[in-house]
Amino acid sequence: MRKRVTSAVWALVVNVVFWIIIPYYLGAFLASRVPQTPLAIPTFVYEFGVLFIILEVTAAFFQGKAIAVPFISGAAALTAVYLWLATNGGVLTVTSSGLTVGLGFTLLLYILILPSIWAAIRAPISYIVWRKAVLSEAQQTPAPTPA
Questions:
Q1: Which of 59, 74, 91, 109 has the greatest CB tally within 10 Å of its CB?
Q2: How confident is residue 147, by pLDDT bands cut at 50, 70 and 90?
Q3: Is the four-CA dihedral 89, 80, 47, 9 of positive or negative sign?
Q4: How many domains does the chain have?
Q5: Is position 147 within any domain?
Q6: Mind listing the pLDDT tens digit for each residue in 98-122?
Q7: Is 46 exposed, middle or buried (0-12, 13-18, 19+ CB in 10 A)?
Q8: Angstrom distance (rounded) from CA 51 to CA 55
Q9: Cβ pair 30, 40 in contact under 8 A
Q10: Which DSSP symbol is given to 2?
Q11: CA proximity to 94, closest of 40, 28, 34
């Protein structure tokens, strides 16, 4: 139990820094240059940050158990959604010194999102494969006879 709690606390600290603190300050910096980015809206950062923290801390607490699989998949799927929303679907408009430039990188965004989608699909598949391997090993190993 101590290992689970320690793992969950570390997940909490890392996720607060990675999903709340860094995006908040990045959004504050980008607010004047890229006003359309959702990172400039603190509620966007806090809502997604809390969702990430809940999913990641729960997955860390139940690591190695079946209940962790939906939380791992959920965090991976949420990462894909977050990337899509934070970049406005791959279209950013940058404003600086009265000059406005639009950047379209939708194809690149698809490539960036693919690993997150694959992680969401891989988590339940890898758990099923691991569980079948454990069960088949248990069936093949004869039970010890009492002496």
A1: 59
A2: low
A3: negative
A4: 1
A5: no
A6: 888 888 999 999 999 999 999 999 9
A7: middle
A8: 6
A9: yes
A10: H
A11: 34
Length of the chain: 147
- How big is the chain by its Cα radius of gyration, in Å? 21
SS3 assignment, position 92: strand
Angle (CA) 140 141 145, round 5°: 135
Tell me the whole-structure pTM to 2 decimals. 0.83
Instruction: Give the model's confidence band at 124: pLDDT under 50 very low, under 70 low, under 90 confident, else very high.
Output: very high
Q: Percentage of the chain surpassing pLDDT 70?
A: 97
Which residues span the domain enclosing 27?
A: 2-140
CA 79 – CA 116 distance, rounded (Å): 6
Look at residue 145 and tell me if it is in a domain: no
